Amino acid sequence: MNKTVNPNDLTLDDDNGPLYVARKKVYPQSVSGTFRRIKWGLMAFCLGVYYFLPFVRWNRGLGAPSQAVLIDLPNSRFYFFFIELWPQEVYYFTGLLIVAAVALFLMNSVGGRVWCGYLCPQTVWTDLFYAVERLIEGDRRERMKKDKSSDPMKLERISEIVLKHSIWLLIAWWTGGAWVLYFNDAPTLVKELVTFQAPMIAYIWIAILTATTYVLAGFMREQVCTYMCPWPRIQAALTDEWALNVTYRYDRGEKRTSVKKAAELRALGEHVGDCVDCYQCVAVCPTGIDIRNGPQLECIQCGLCIDACDNVMTKIGRPKRLIGYDNDINIHRREEGKAPIYKIVRARTVVYSAIIAAIGGFMIYTLATRSLLDVNVLHDRNPVAVKLSDGSIRNAYTVRLLNKSGYDRVIAIDANGPANLAIHVIGVDSVTPDRPMIVIPRDSTSELRLLVTAPADNNPEKSVPVRFHVTDIGLGEVASATDNFVSP
Amino acid sequence: MTDHHSDIDSVTGKSTTGHEWDGIKELNTPLPRWWVISFYLTIVWAVAYWIVYPAWPLIQSNTTGLFGYSSRADVAVELANLEKIRGDKMTVLGAASLADIEKDPALLALARAKGKTVFGDNCAPCHGSGGAGAKGFPNLNDDDWLWGGTLDQIMQTIQFGARSGHAKTHEGQMLAFGKDGMLKVDEIVTVANYVRSLSGLSTRKGYDAAKGEKIFAENCVACHGDGGKGNPEMGAPNLTDKIWLYGSDEASLIETISLGRAGVMPAWEGRLDPATIKAMAVYVHSLGGGK
User: Fold this and answer.
1) Could you confirm whether the keyword 4Fe-4S appears in this record (chain A) (predicted)?
2) Which chain B residues have a beta carbon less than 8 Å from that of A17?
3) Contacts (Cβ under 8 Å, ≥6 apart) of A458
4) Taking the complete model, does pTM exceed 0.95, yes or no?
């Protein structure tokens, strides 16, 4: 029989140990300082944009939606301020995603995981949920004490817990609610939601996002970053020796001693580190790690440990930034007595910037020069050609005209191909036999049946190209499409 | 029998099942309680499902479930809803005149969409999916119409058919001049060549044009009219144009004249509702051959 070992006594370093350790709940302490202020600012900005953007109005004229940012799925339109995208233009989103990915790479090569620390939704909402928790249950020590307490639940404690979860759910519910507002006119939808007139799908989405926000930000927290998110793994492969990461400057910090002992030793002229082992950097860390162990996967580089350490350094009268944005190169350089160097312009950052500029520039160019009038032509397949009683030959086409502008257009259609072609649009009495005109309402498509006839005395070859031009009579804007004219 | 629970794993501190393979022992890790409860709930759910919904096949039918639910009834309800959604539009279409439908882009689009679907279901077997037709089945894209190509004439043909047995159907057929002994073989050959000459096709060497004209005048003009221009009242085709329903070569013509022709177009009244027939007429007219 084997000897029993208490699993709690084992660590990951133990060869006989388990392959995982159970989560230890993190109780981040409140902290104030530069990076905390940046985080508050960015949180207010990100949440402000997310929660209130659907209510921003944008005048597009009568009959068009007046919401600045709107994903209109039933009508297949996407509105972003002055931009209106049609379904066939979704490649702009592809471009946007590529730019976003490379921007992430660029951020990473300049300042490490700044995305994780300041902008990631998981960070922002978790931070907000922690703030609520702190407000109601108190700071780190109080929360730890309350959680450990084996006393039977007192009414006070229960009401605290209920209040906390209610506020969490309220935030989560608003998060889901804001999401659906991007897909419908916001004021109308709010009214419908309140009066229970909104479509079921809206309530379902609100429920889904309420649940995910509540669970991810309230309970899973740093585990999302450590176990679920792929970015920590990817970024580890993308980072380099010049990237500024939140770094414990061990050249300055070691050896650690107490404040009192350090003063004594310094008086004797011995070398002592600035770190006093106060564990403030660990106490404030939202992922519960010790940054002094060096760069690690769990570190989201939010900079809160920098603030915590700075506060301690100020108190004990030592210079700030024992923990700061730095890289290993400089630690080694300082150890060798050289001045630290920082390089932001490097091959890596230049290439990323160039890619962003190239794709972004191309997108802006295509967006600025994109046509608001478009034509697609589809040749009839059965029959491809018809012989008429007088011996002339006719081909039929389905023509789709797209008017992406905000005004009605009068369009003239010409066919350039074999000589003496007569063209006719079903349902339209042509004034001229070779140039039918038709009105296309704004922001819509029209499908027309177009008949093109070559006279008997001028029957073309088996198959000849024919080019269709559609011209806006008022503005002179032209769009074209090519097809073939076929003889039986 | 060994006591499993006395065998404790040193690493985890948990008991083992007592199973061991090549020194590898199996931990006694029971399924999580929530998992087991979920599993039992699915069993309860399945049993409830059998009772509530139609499930068990019997020899003649099946169990109907507690609430008499059936997916077939669901389909009927959905179809009724669909009709309700479309009802208004189709009513407007049914009330509008044929000419007005073609003038109104929205109604025209609706009629063409509706017509195309119904055409595919009902007409495509003979006329082809795009109305291209085949030998004996008219091409609806061209401008040659046996019974007339105006909107009203097309609608009438769809409604009552040709030689369909309907009281108002188009009547009139090509007689079998050879089979019924009205013309001799050489007369048939001669008149066939004469008919080819009407639309400018080549004729057999040495054929007697005067004799052909005479035979034509005596036998064919009654239906096909002077000069063979045809007569939509009788469904008699125009013999001077370039379009031939049964073929324009001499052999085909001889066959037509000898055996006669009487293609049948079914009547759609009663099978399709009036609004749909209207949509169909507009669709066929808009294929391009309409007059």
Assistant:
1) yes
2) 11
3) A418, A419, A420
4) no
